[in-house]
Amino acid sequence: MKFPFASWSCPIEQSTGPFVDYFLGGKSVAKYHMSYGAILFILLSCSLAVFCNVSQYLCIRRFSAISFQVLGHMKTVCVLTLGWLLFGSELTFKNITGMVIAVVGMIIYSWAVELEKQSNAKTSITEEDIRLLKEVAPPTPQVKDFELRETKV
Fold it and tell me: Its domain of life (predicted)?
């Protein structure tokens, strides 16, 4: 889903980005003085983006779509909380209420998934159940095969 969108959105963003940046900021990106620190943080940002995309791909392969969305909401809660702790950003009542609702929803979802796993585990028959059924079941009658003249159980 991401790749077809990226094939046409990336060229559009690359061609329009500098113009939008100049319009909004009044400065050209091309005139920015690249220091070693700026290059380091650009490379760090690119590396983190690659690792983020790889981790999303692995999560999509491992979990269901709903579980992936729950992880996305958890990421949002973590970003808001870390922004508040590290940078002193304002947490409004609306933000806190949304985070509480998201966390409660994650807990309920996890609880429901565990209940489903337990009910699926109880419905499957184990080898111990088969052994107990054989011990309790009445013996099967013997059948005589007239063509081969032998008795089968």
Answer: Eukaryota
